[in-house]
Design brief:
Elements (H helix, E strand, L loop, with lengths): L14 E4 L5 H11 L5 E5 L2 E15 L4 E4 L8 H11 L6 E9 L5 E4 L5 E9 L3 E7 L11 E5 L4 E4 L2 H4 L1 E5 L6 E9 L2
Antiparallel strand pairs: 1-10, 2-3, 3-4, 3-5, 5-12, 6-11, 7-10, 7-12, 8-9, 8-11
Length: 189
């Protein structure tokens, strides 16, 4: 008889993963709200990605090298902002950005750290799972063993703050099914 054991990865300091953070009914509501938003193809330094995005609140302009104020965060997302803010023990007003991303089949996010003005990052995965990866930012600390792969399930929440935010990079492997995410960010104080 063969038994499979699931070993929980050891996360970097400040990384937290919570499965089933939203219910199936709440996921449906969030997807309905996302369907009302015009998503545009993400572009970075002349490169056009497969994913589409919409940013609300503050966003980082790579062309201008600074934060820019965008559209107001739609009030239809207040319930999830409040729930996440309560969960991470911050005032909902501290959530400076709400980013919606659509990942078509095969799309990825390459290794990166989020823009410097942002601090805490909270992400919700919707509609399908993905493989989220972390590796040390410092190249001298990187090895195959230092990369952490985390299966992120639909309706789950991940949090990156502290060392996991500043000393690690993250990426998302090519998705096998269409996926949406909502990312919330606070600003550095």
């Amino acid at each position: 008889m063969q038994t499979l054991f699931s070993i929980e990865p050891i996360y970097p300091e400040g990384f937290q993963y919570t499965p089933d953070f939203v219910t199936a009914a709440e996921e449906t509501i969030l997807l309905q709200e996302i369907s009302k938003i015009e998503l545009t193809t993400f572009q970075y330094q002349g490169y056009e990605a497969k994913r589409k995005t919409a940013s609300f609140g503050f966003d980082y302009s790579f062309e201008k090298g600074k934060l820019v104020k965008g559209q107001t965060i739609p009030s239809s997302f207040n319930f999830i902002i409040t729930r996440i803010a309560d969960f991470i023990n911050v005032n909902p007003a501290e959530i400076a950005e709400l980013l919606v991303i659509e990942y078509p089949v095969g799309s990825v996010i390459n290794w990166h750290r989020d823009a410097p003005p942002f601090d805490l990052i909270a992400g919700i995965s919707l509609m399908s799972d993905c493989l989220f990866k972390l590796r040390p930012f410092d190249e001298t600390l990187r090895s195959r063993k230092s990369t952490i792969s985390i299966p992120v399930q639909r309706r789950s929440l991940y949090i990156m703050q502290g060392s996991s935010r500043s000393d690690w990079q993250h990426s998302i492997a090519p998705v096998t099914d269409i996926r949406y995410s909502i990312t919330l960010r606070t600003l550095r104080k």
